């Protein structure tokens, strides 16, 4: 039981990270109907920017008060990663809008290769460890097993991750439902041509979608850096595929679905590693992706796609 | 529309932004009134430069490295300044000569090229014949004209030929049947591992006995993996095939007892020439024919094996295109619903495409295993699938000669980087051009796609014609329809 609860907490933490990345996939798919393959690498870019900002703040400026440092890192990472998201859209996707469907997917794969190798060339291929920053936690349950005492720990790190995710999700839902920008986005999602006729600046709205996705991915990147304490240029690929799985599982195009899917994927991965074999945890994620797409292509909360002739 | 004006709509329809260098395209669309003014060009270049400053700040300007006691930072403001300056200058020049003038340089050049293209309508056919003739004599050409470096060149030719074969194999699935497969490398891996494992467990199995078996096994896997994804199309199909490819790789990596895990399998036998091995001394190939032994014989032999395999792939594809199944593939690519209403069995059509594509992938895989003598899951990553797909798409979907051209350009071009040692005199002794290989590959992939979304060879010739044969230019093919 205690083991189960512990794994549940770990799974929710990991799932929050996947969920934040998945939102970027689901929004882009909803609005222009393409898989932004480079989104996982935007997440990686975000975590590298967070790392560099963190190091500059602590070693060059000598800041020591951690909450302020992390807040600055968060804001800087969101801003600079947004610039990357915007640029990727502008360079690789906008020129191909209205082209055949495969074209943007190919440039997305190309962009993914570019981003990975750009970071590898400029930052080196070796991984970047940082010492754990937020330590400690509270014990919420204790129990006895045949192997001795077991305590369920909820670390401060996990609390921060889950709380930040919840806050971002609330803010984000308000953004989509209440603001003119959100309205424009939903309009573009339903019918891009009609939205353009009614005076919505479609290109700008799509750009902002990429910007928002990138900002959320950078938050996930920062959390990943703090949680695991080590990053390299290749983290984007696996995280990206899993987050995409989450988006599909939740129903692509649906924002609550992306978050739900993210949590589910996190839980599945953690429970699989905890109870079965850790080597095959990626196989679990990939198999779920295949199974969901084959048997339930519209996902948990998605709308079924009507095939029009 | 008359055949004489196919270039005009492209130039005006396509959002400008094809030929620009990658970083230089970060600006907002220019306002109409100062479109061609110098001030506008300058402002635009400044915007692009500022964007590069923002993007590069944490990557070019700052670098973190592992040092005792944690990560240390090095600042490289010089590098950042150079990047910003280059982008500013390049963007300004492009603005003045290409984007913001009434008569762009590229339009004139493009016009000249397409005029020539119209003057020689059979250029593709003759280019194909010339390339074929060159490929036949290639090893002797290099041994005769480049003695001493022939091994390097023939090795490169083998590599390019392998990618051509893989590209042709994938072209059946993606180009003809229109099924986007991001996990093609899985079949390549199945072929390589089948041969390696068979050779490891059974002594009598050599390359020539394993080749058909590897092809069969790969085709079998093609059907197994193809079956569940029959209902999927487009992006979803792509992602599921990607997942399958990764599953196979992760299994190869972790099933230590069977596949050797990350250690891979070594000591894979070399191919023999009707039982003759390429070794020095008694009973070898050189001894039998009474010629002096030379290492290069084996490379020339390997080259001809992959050359013949590739040609077989090409011939089979070309023949199949004329048969009902090939016609069905192309119909499926254009419109699946229409295809179904006409009574074509889409299940069988898709499965044959998957199986045939996988079989050629398997052949190429076992050739890869015998050439390397060692395989490990490292060689079968997603990147490999992406490269093969890029070759097919950049060459022009469904175009056989396009695959050849883009293989030579992409693979050969990247290998050229190895010979750029003189650059280290400019950039300092630590400059290693090969580390930029994949970066340049990715940039080329994006640029070619933006420049020519239908691929380098973008005219599509329909196999079935009514009365009169019409060439369909890339611009006439309905955009956004079909696949």
From TrEMBL, chain A:
**How does the entry describe its membrane topology?**
Multi-pass membrane protein
In the record, what lineage is assigned to the organism producing the protein? Bacteria, Pseudomonadati, Pseudomonadota, Alphaproteobacteria, Hyphomicrobiales
Annotated GO MF terms:
L-isoleucine transmembrane transporter activity; L-leucine transmembrane transporter activity; L-phenylalanine transmembrane transporter activity; L-valine transmembrane transporter activity
Name the CDD domains for this protein.
TM_PBP1_LivH_like
Protein name (record): Branched-chain amino acid ABC transporter permease LivH
Short name of one Pfam family for this protein? Answer: BPD_transp_2
Q: Where are the transmembrane segments?
A: 12-35, 42-63, 69-88, 100-119, 156-176, 284-302
Plastid as a keyword? Answer: no
Organism of derivation: Aquibium carbonis
**Intracellular or extracellular location(s):** Cell membrane
Query: What GO biological process terms does the UniProt entry carry, in alphabetical order?
Result: D-alanine transmembrane transport; L-alanine transport; L-isoleucine import across plasma membrane
* Family to which the UniProt record says this protein belongs: Belongs to the binding-protein-dependent transport system permease family. LivHM subfamily.
PANTHER family the record matches: BRANCHED-CHAIN AMINO ACID TRANSPORT SYSTEM PERMEASE PROTEIN LIVH, HIGH-AFFINITY BRANCHED-CHAIN AMINO ACID TRANSPORT SYSTEM PERMEASE PROTEIN LIVH
Alphabetical GO CC annotations of the entry are: plasma membrane
In terms of InterPro entries, this protein maps to: ABC_transp_permease (IPR001851), BCAA_transport_permease (IPR052157)
UniProtKB/TrEMBL annotation, chain B:
Q: Which GO terms describe its molecular function?
A: branched-chain amino acid transmembrane transporter activity
From the UniProt entry, list the residue stretches annotated as the region Disordered: 1-36
The membrane spanning regions, by residue number, are 45-62, 74-99, 126-146, 153-176, 182-199, 206-230, 236-256, 301-320, 351-370, 382-414, 434-451
Which CDD domains does the record associate with it?
Answer: TM_PBP1_LivM_like (cd06581)
Do you know which InterPro entries this protein is assigned to?
Answer: ABC_transp_permease (IPR001851), LivHM_N (IPR021807), LivM-like (IPR043428)
Is NAD one of the keywords?
no
Listed A to Z, the keywords are: Cell membrane, Membrane, Transmembrane, Transmembrane helix
- Topology of this chain in the membrane: Multi-pass membrane protein
Gene Ontology cellular component? plasma membrane
The listed locations are: Cell membrane
In this chain, composition skew of type Polar residues spans 7-16
Domain High-affinity branched-chain amino acid transport system permease LivHM N-terminal, residue spans: 41-137
Where is this chain compositionally biased, Basic and acidic residues type?
21-36
Q: Which PANTHER family match?
A: HIGH-AFFINITY BRANCHED-CHAIN AMINO ACID TRANSPORT SYSTEM PERMEASE, HIGH-AFFINITY BRANCHED-CHAIN AMINO ACID TRANSPORT SYSTEM PERMEASE PROTEIN LIVM
NCBIfam families (alphabetical):
PRK11301.1
What protein name applies here?
A: High-affinity branched-chain amino acid ABC transporter permease LivM
- Which gene is transcribed and translated to give this protein? livM
């Amino acid at each position: 039981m205690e083991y189960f609860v512990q794994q549940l907490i770990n799974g929710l933490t990991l799932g929050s990270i996947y969920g934040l990345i998945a939102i970027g996939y689901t929004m882009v798919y909803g609005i222009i109907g393409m898989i932004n393959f480079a989104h996982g690498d935007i997440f990686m870019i975000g975590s590298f920017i967070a790392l560099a900002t963190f190091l500059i703040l602590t070693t060059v400026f000598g800041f020591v008060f951690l909450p302020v440092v992390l807040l600055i890192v968060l804001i800087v990472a969101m801003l600079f990663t947004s610039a990357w998201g915007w640029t990727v859209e502008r360079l690789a996707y906008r020129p191909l809008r209205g082209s055949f469907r495969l074209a943007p997917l190919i440039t997305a794969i190309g962009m993914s290769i570019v981003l990975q190798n750009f970071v590898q060339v400029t930052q080196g291929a070796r991984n970047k460890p940082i010492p754990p920053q937020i330590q400690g936690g509270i014990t919420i349950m204790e129990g006895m097993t045949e192997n001795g005492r077991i305590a369920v720990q909820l670390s401060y790190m996990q609390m921060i991750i889950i709380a930040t995710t919840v806050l971002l999700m609330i803010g984000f839902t308000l953004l989509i439902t209440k603001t003119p920008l959100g309205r424009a986005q939903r309009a573009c999602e339903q019918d891009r041509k009609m939205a353009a006729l009614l005076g919505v600046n479609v290109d700008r709205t799509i750009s902002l979608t990429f910007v928002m996705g990138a900002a959320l991915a950078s938050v996930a990147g920062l959390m990943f850096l703090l949680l695991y304490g080590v990053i390299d240029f290749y983290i984007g690929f696996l995280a990206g595929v899993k987050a995409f799985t989450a988006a599909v599982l939740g129903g692509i195009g649906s924002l609550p679905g992306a978050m739900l899917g993210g949590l589910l994927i996190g839980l599945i991965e953690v429970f699989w590693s905890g109870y079965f074999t850790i080597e095959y945890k990626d196989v679990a994620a990939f198999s779920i992706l295949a199974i969901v797409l084959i048997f339930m292509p519209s996902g948990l909360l998605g709308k079924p796609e009507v095939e029009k002739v | 529309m008359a055949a004489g004006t196919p270039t005009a709509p492209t130039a005006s329809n396509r959002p400008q932004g094809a030929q620009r260098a990658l970083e230089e395209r970060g600006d907002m669309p220019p306002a109409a009134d100062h479109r061609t003014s110098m001030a506008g060009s300058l402002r635009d270049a400044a915007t692009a430069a500022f964007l590069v400053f923002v993007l590069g700040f944490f990557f070019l300007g700052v670098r973190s490295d592992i040092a005792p006691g944690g990560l240390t930072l090095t600042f490289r403001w010089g590098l950042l300044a150079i990047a910003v300056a280059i982008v500013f200058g390049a963007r300004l020049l492009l603005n003045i000569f290409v984007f913001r003038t009434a008569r762009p340089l590229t339009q004139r050049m493009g016009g000249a090229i397409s005029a020539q293209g119209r003057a020689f309508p059979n250029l593709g056919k003759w280019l194909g014949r010339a390339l074929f003739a060159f490929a036949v004599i290639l090893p002797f050409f290099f041994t005769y004209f480049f003695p001493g470096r022939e091994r390097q060149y023939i090795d490169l030719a083998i590599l390019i030929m392998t990618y051509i074969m893989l590209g042709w194999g994938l072209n059946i699935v993606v180009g003809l049947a229109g099924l986007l497969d991001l996990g093609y490398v899985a079949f390549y891996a199945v072929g390589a591992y089948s041969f390696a494992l068979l050779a490891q467990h059974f002594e009598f199995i050599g390359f020539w006995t394993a080749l058909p078996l590897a092809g069969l096994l790969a085709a079998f896997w093609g059907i197994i993996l193809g079956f569940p994804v029959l209902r999927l199309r487009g992006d979803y199909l792509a992602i599921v095939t990607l997942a399958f490819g990764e599953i196979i790789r992760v299994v190869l990596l972790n099933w230590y007892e069977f596949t050797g895990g990350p250690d891979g399998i070594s000591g894979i036998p070399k191919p023999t020439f009707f039982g003759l091995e390429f070794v020095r001394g008694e009973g070898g190939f050189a001894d039998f024919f009474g010629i002096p032994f030379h290492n290069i014989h084996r490379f020339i032999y390997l080259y001809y094996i992959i050359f013949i395999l590739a040609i077989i792939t090409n011939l089979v594809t070309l023949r199949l295109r004329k048969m009902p199944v090939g016609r069905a593939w192309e119909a499926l690519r254009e419109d699946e619903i229409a295809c179904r209403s006409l009574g074509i069995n889409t299940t069988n059509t898709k499965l044959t495409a998957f199986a045939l594509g996988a079989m050629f992938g398997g052949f190429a895989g076992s050739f890869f295993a015998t050439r390397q003598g060692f395989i490990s899951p490292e060689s079968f990553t997603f990147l490999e699938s992406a490269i093969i797909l890029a070759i097919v798409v950049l060459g022009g979907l469904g175009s056989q000669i396009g695959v050849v051209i883009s293989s030579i350009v992409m693979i050969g071009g990247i290998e050229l980087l190895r010979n750029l040692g003189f650059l280290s005199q400019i950039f300092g002794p630590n400059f290693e051009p090969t580390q930029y290989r994949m970066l340049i590959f990715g940039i080329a992939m994006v640029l070619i796609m933006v420049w020519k979304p239908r691929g380098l060879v973008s005219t599509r010739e329909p196999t079935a014609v009514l009365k009169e044969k019409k060439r369909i230019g890339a611009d006439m093919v309905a955009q956004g329809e079909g696949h």
